Amino acid sequence: MLVGAGVMALAMPAMAQAPKVDPVQVDPSRPDWENPAVYARSKMPAHATGFAFESRERALAGHRTQSSRFLSLNGDWRFNFSPSVDGAPKGFQAPGYDVSLWKTIPVPAMWQAEGYGQPKYNNITYPFPANRPLVPHDTNETGSYRRDFDLPAAWSGDDVILHIGAAGSAYRVWVNGQEVGYSEDSKLPSEFDVTRQVKPGRNTVAIQVIRWSDGSYLEDQDFWRVSGIEREVYVAAVPKTRIADFFVHAGLDDAFRDGRLAVDVAVKGTAAAKARIVLLDGTREVLSREAAVGGRGDTRSVTLKADVPGVRQWSAETPNLYTLLVELVDAQDRVIQSTPQRIGFRDVRMLNGKVTVNGRPIVIRGINRHEHDPVTFHVISDESMRRDMELMKRNNFNAIRTSHYPNDPRWYALADEMGMYVMDEANIESHAYMDYANKNPELRSKLQIGFDPAWEGAHISRVMNMVERDKNHPSVIFWSLGNEAGIGPNFEKAAAAIRKRDSGRLVSYLGWGTLDWDHQPNPYVDIYAPMYDDVEKMVDWAKDPTRKQPMIQCEYAHMQGNSGGNFKEYWDTIYAHPEKLQGGFIWDWVDQSMYRTNKDGKRYWGDGGEYGPNPGGDIEFGDGLNQPDRTPNPQLYEVQKVLSPIQFEGFDPATGRLTVRNRHDFRDLSGFAFDWVIEEDGVPVATGPLPALTTVAHGTETVTVPLTSLQRKPGAEYFVTVRARAKQGAVPMVPANYVVGWEQFALGKSVAPVAVRKGNVTVADSADVVRLSANGASLSIDRKTGLLDGYRSGGTTLIEGGAPNFHRAPTDNDLANGNLADTSAWEPIAANRQVRSVTTERAADGSASVRVDYELGAGAASFVTTYTMAGDGSVAVVGDFVPLKSDLTAPIRIGMAYTLPTSLKTVEWYGRGPHESYVDRKTSAAIGLWRGAIADQNHDYMRPQDTGNKVDVRWMELSGTGRGVRVVGDTLLMMQALAFPYTDLDRRPAGTWKSSDIVPHDHVTLNIDAAQWGVGGDTTWSHVGQPHMQYRTKLVPTRIAFRLEPFSGEGTTPDKARPARATEAQ
């Protein structure tokens, strides 16, 4: 994640000191973990993910645990934790070393999640003083692991391989006391041939993991720095002559119709053998090819080829997979090994300046995803992966960037199966060196590690080991060289190595964010993948004829806290410039917090400062579309709506005609059903289906909603909503009838006769209070404060307050983007509020009014509040704000603040819902009739901040215990009903105020606004991320006008409203 020149104190603290470079980079006397030239010892060559079974039958069953050649070492290991590398036990690898008193730890697991050491969150800075390649010794936590296993007797004569899925940052491995190897790179597997070290019967494996190493200088990502063995460990038996690796090239012919299959099979061993491939479509055999493995020596290879006419093609929308068996057979045609691989036939290339799949330009509706779990940190379960994929599919994503490292191999298999493009990213980020060099360009070649020849091997190794592991996944269409690591020859050489090995995918890398307006594409990659280019920069790139690469932002729309504003504007721009703009990857998927428990036993989301000094800020990792448990943050609804590949536009309210636009790149609309509903003041009055559509990809079709039978009531407002619902099985992981896309159109509002509110109002005026009363209702105004001392009905106080309100509890964006600084002048102005006069007036119709005239900030502005009670007891409220000084910035909100008794527990409104909405984040909130508990209207963001706002409100009712008050806007209002004092949301020192502290108490808050800033969200660290100008308040005279009406019961339409709360699990 990028940080620009402006660095925010909240989330992205500046570096304490410039990173250094030790003058002697490579020194043989240093330990391996401080020597950049040593990043592996005795590791086997990287190869494609897969497991070779002993028979075709077991290969097709696909369960490794049922293979006689597989033995999992997951589970409890003996474990010793040392806070320093020098304090780690010596000689523990020897089988005779007594570890019986050691505790146990599960594998896989991060040891910080098991109570050892402290997690650290960093962004930009390293978690230790940067002086590459040196790392601390005295604070370098070290974990020593021991595990025994029994070697199966059936493995006699086979080679034995030890597989460690991922651990780090560096580790040494022993078997039976003999060292078998060393590895760095915390996110890729290591395999060691331990045939010579194992023996029949009981064997001992020992692993020592060192937290910081020279490899850590390439792992400066913005995530929790935790340590341990985070992916699976197993041993496997393999024949002496075996498949060492295979590379599946499953492409298309030049007409993009028929399949072209080529499988490169690498064989280790000298025995005579044949390689065979068998392609299956379900259980049907499509083809089989075999060839003798020729050549001499211990490593040989053969390529098997075949054409597949009329192949079912793979794309993210049509994830058609075949099963390929790659087999090795002996001279008697007996299977030695059978390896299953799910493959997809697809073509990825640049065509006419665009990224294409199967010959068609695609649009990337992407998301950045860290591997994160609120309990296990970086250890991700099958269930968690499937939940992530399910939510992504339901929310219209079609692409994932594995920010910022290769993910667990199971994730790619899921992407293949469910249909998701993947930008696979190497585990390379040296953010601190990049950042300092960007600010000091004259030092770039000295500081940025990409220029350092001592680190060339480490860079290329990390990139190419990723390529080798993931090369058979059709979902992977981009290789990314890393993230925020600067530039230099090391990256150019890594890109060249990729192209030499794999010509069927594209290469991406930027190395830094866009600096001001200086677009800096890299010529050795295929796409321009900037970070956080705003709409103006996107348009500038699209219109510049000298720019040839298509833009796919690797990060955009920073979802920090209450964010996600302006998101529709991004996509309006992308769709307006298809010649150059091809989408991007949102930052990011999930808040990276962990469960914590307060003194009352209530769980909450922990912040960075709870684990000791934290240079990464207190909640900077709270920038996801989902909470850590995958409960959606409200902005996810906006994203789902805007990213929908089925859109409705051009509605004609006279005829009911509208256009359905299919933004899919491959599929038609036959997999979706369409319907419509007409609502009268938020209540459905007519519904029906639309015709079945087969609109081709990128095509449009006109349909008609029948309006002729609609009988309109005077004064009623009508909307028609059209929806696209997935049919069963149409979209993987999306259930039948799930709404994939929708739009709402106004049918207009008819004029109703003005109600005559008869009756006389009694006025009681004294030195302290003005009281108006009529029809069992009363209104009291305090002459000293000018505030509503109480609006009562039937002896119950319904609402109080009414102070001019210019304050918003700061969102993360408000704090970091300068919103708060730009509007903060209004805090003292509002506090310095003087009542100039309180006057009363009677009208000929029997009504009476009280006018309160405020001076704000010693002449900065005036605010006049007028309460007019009618004979039926209702009260018209008008607030007139007039700025008197032109040198002020506009306030962040213009409205009035009220409080209500806690006996009012339910809110119902006619406006946008069911979730919160803001002026720049409202397209996903439909106009409707909504109802819910007031206590459910606030969302527990990672840090308390403004929440629960609702825009375009026509009216709102608050009720409880048989009484309530209705607020009816003269124009559309912004309203906010919360079950606690609004000040509970205000910013407090880091670590002192949690989401769990926000509980109903004291009184209900009701804020009623005429105007308010949006939440913004382009970035969270500079003025660029502020709400767009059209979503800010203006320093002009502003009126807010509404009516208060008391009522008995539980509201006017409680049985017709739809349920509403801040967020709902999907």
What is the total number of structural domains? 5
Tell me what the CATH architecture of the largest domain is: Alpha-Beta Barrel
Total of helices: 13
Mean pLDDT: 94
Silhouette? globular
Number of strands: 61
Q: Name the CATH superfamily classification of the largest domain.
A: Glycosidases
CATH topology of the largest domain: TIM Barrel
User: What does the largest sheet look like?
Assistant: 17 strands, mixed
* N/C terminus separation: 27 Å
Fold topology:
Layout: E1 20-21, E2 40-41, H1 56-61, E3 70-72, E4 75-82, E5 103-107, E6 109-110, E7 120-122, E8 131-132, E9 142-151, E10 159-164, E11 167-168, E12 170-175, E13 178-184, E14 190-193, E15 201-210, E16 223-225, E17 228-229, E18 233-238, E19 242-252, E20 259-268, E21 274-281, E22 284-292, E23 299-308, E24 322-329, E25 335-343, E26 348-351, E27 354-357, E28 360-361, E29 364-368, H2 382-394, E30 399-401, H3 409-418, E31 421-425, H4 431-439, H5 444-447, H6 456-470, E32 476-480, H7 489-501, E33 506-508, H8 535-543, E34 551-558, H9 567-576, E35 581-587, E36 595-597, E37 603-605, H10 635-642, E38 646-649, E39 657-662, E40 672-680, E41 683-689, E42 700-704, E43 717-726, E44 739-749, E45 762-765, E46 769-774, E47 777-782, E48 788-793, E49 796-805, H11 812-817, H12 819-823, H13 826-831, E50 833-842, E51 848-856, E52 861-869, E53 875-883, E54 893-900, E55 906-913, E56 926-933, E57 950-960, E58 963-978, E59 1004-1012, E60 1038-1048, E61 1058-1059
Parallel strand pairs: 1-8, 29-30, 29-35, 30-31, 31-32, 32-33, 34-35, 56-61
Antiparallel strand pairs: 2-13, 3-18, 4-5, 4-9, 6-17, 7-16, 9-15, 10-14, 10-18, 11-17, 12-13, 12-15, 19-20, 20-23, 21-22, 21-24, 24-25, 26-27, 27-28, 36-37, 38-39, 39-42, 40-41, 40-43, 43-44, 45-46, 46-47, 47-48, 48-49, 49-54, 50-51, 51-52, 52-53, 53-60, 54-59, 55-56, 55-57, 57-58, 58-59, 58-60
Helix pairs in contact: 2-3, 6-7
